[in-house]
Design a protein that fits this description.
Keywords: Activator, DNA-binding, Nucleus, Repressor, Transcription, Transcription regulation. Belongs to the bZIP family. It holds the Pfam family bZIP_1. The protein is mostly helical. The chain has a domain at 3-71. 51% of the residues lie in helices and 5% in strands. The chain is built from 4 helices and 2 strands. The protein has helices at residues 35-45, 68-71, 82-151, 168-172; strands at residues 3-6, 22-25. A two-stranded antiparallel sheet has the order 1-2. It is elongated.
Length: 175
């Protein structure tokens, strides 16, 4: 695996970024990245504008820790007291049980929401069918009303067309 080492580069007219002075060393061959390649990379790392040249750049690039645990600081003693171990075991068990309870509760809540969703979907379907039936009934009744308005002048006087009627008194008299 490649490892980063510091190496000096020729002086540059512009401020140089510290990462430009790093080169990749391959341990198996001991070869380093050629200086010509580093010189080509240097303008890319330098600030593009003179306004940015005044920005502070870290003067030292630290090497990443070789092991994750080294970065965590000094380790405690390898083994604690038996009481501490018992407390840890009890705490872990308690935490495990609490996590199971929480997952179970979350699952139950999701199941309840799903059931509620299904009920609402069924209710929605029933209501849509009822709306369809009521719409059809409205059309039928509207057509029946239009037909009735043509024949009945009482409800709609402007549709009244004087029709010759037999005399009501004459209809009551015996013939």
């Amino acid at each position: 695996m490649p490892r980063w080492d510091r190496e000096t580069t020729p002086p540059s007219p512009r401020p140089s970024h510290p990462l430009v002075s790093l080169s990749l060393k391959f341990p198996e061959s001991g070869r380093r990245t050629p200086k010509a390649v580093l010189r080509l990379l240097e303008p890319l790392a330098a600030p593009a504008s003179p306004l940015l040249w005044g920005l502070r750049v870290p003067s030292r690039v630290s090497e990443p820790p070789r092991d994750f645990h080294e970065a965590q600081g000094p380790r405690k003693a390898a083994a604690g007291s038996p009481e501490d171990d018992d407390r840890k075991v009890r705490r872990r068990e308690k935490n495990r049980v609490a996590a199971q309870r929480s997952r179970k509760k979350q699952t139950q809540k999701a199941d309840k929401l799903h059931e509620e969703y299904e009920c609402l979907e069924q209710e929605n379907t029933v209501l849509r069918r009822e709306i369809g039936k009521l719409t059809e009934e409205l059309k039928h009744l509207s057509e029946a009303l239009k037909e009735h308005e043509k024949m009945c002048p009482l409800l709609c006087p402007m549709n009244f067309v004087p029709l010759p009627r037999p005399d009501p008194v004459a209809g009551c008299l015996p013939r």
